[in-house]
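#struct-help
A.M.: can someone run this one for me? Single chain, 128 residues.
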Amino acid sequence: MQPHAANMKAKDEMGALRREAGAWLREKRETAGLSQRELAGRVGIEYYTFISQIEAGRGRVPAERYEAYANAVGVPPRDFVKIMMRYNDPITYAILFGDGEADDGKEPGKDQLSALEQRLALLESKLK
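D.P.: on it. Structure tokens below:
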């Protein structure tokens, strides 16, 4: 595979992870009974459309908002940060936690873990 094609594939993999993170965040927001506008107010984000961008996988929750976001959607902050790291920085996540299991007992399942490990191996090979 040519270097440009490899970079594009790695970007596609990261984009897929961001979209998965966005879907997870949307589910947590909806379970908490919050609109995007309400969530934005609770976490101190001026424009609720930024929540939409995050949920669509086109943005990330700013680290300085992790605790407020976690509290707003009813996830323990430590678990929230761990899950965000798994989606946004899978290499560091694997180094730190290696087990692939998030603290909520649902993320990821065995099949998801295998898929994440395969993606991680691909990303690591692109970084070498």
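A.M.: thanks! Residues 3-127 form a domain with the 434 Repressor (Amino-terminal Domain) fold (CATH 1.10.260.40).
D.P.: also worth noting: Residues 43 and 126 are 35 Å apart (CA to CA).
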